[in-house]
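Subject: for your reference before the review

Hello V.,

The reviewers asked for a structural picture of the protein, and I figured it would be easier to keep everything in one thread rather than splitting it across files. Below is the amino acid sequence we used in the manuscript, unchanged from the supplementary table.
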Amino acid sequence: QVQLVESGSVQAGGSLRLSCAASTRTSSSEAMGWFRQAPGKEREFVAFINWSGGSTYYADSVKGRFTISRDDKNTVYLQMNSLKPEDTAVYYCAAVPIGPYYTPEYRYWGQGTQVTVSS
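And here is what came back from the structure prediction:
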């Protein structure tokens, strides 16, 4: 089970933080990722963090603006700064990749949360 918290609407240039708490079948920390899907588009990779938090990866479109982090349990955060209208999408968190981390092949998915950035 993956529970997403936080959604919202902000103006361009604003910030928003998404949280995702994952409750998986194991008690160990899991690798997790963030994806997003805009209307009429495919779900795309946003950011990834490994089980320890020691490795992170970002899509080029968000690099330098978004930061993925995690606490010592299975809660992952996505801090989004300098938001642009093109960041508008439904954001999903996912846990336990079963394919390459940048593909939407994960065992567990959150329900999705709408982020709207107005110009």
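For the response letter, the relevant points are probably these. The first strand starts at residue 2 and ends at 5. The mean pLDDT is 89.

Happy to draft the paragraph if you're swamped.

O.
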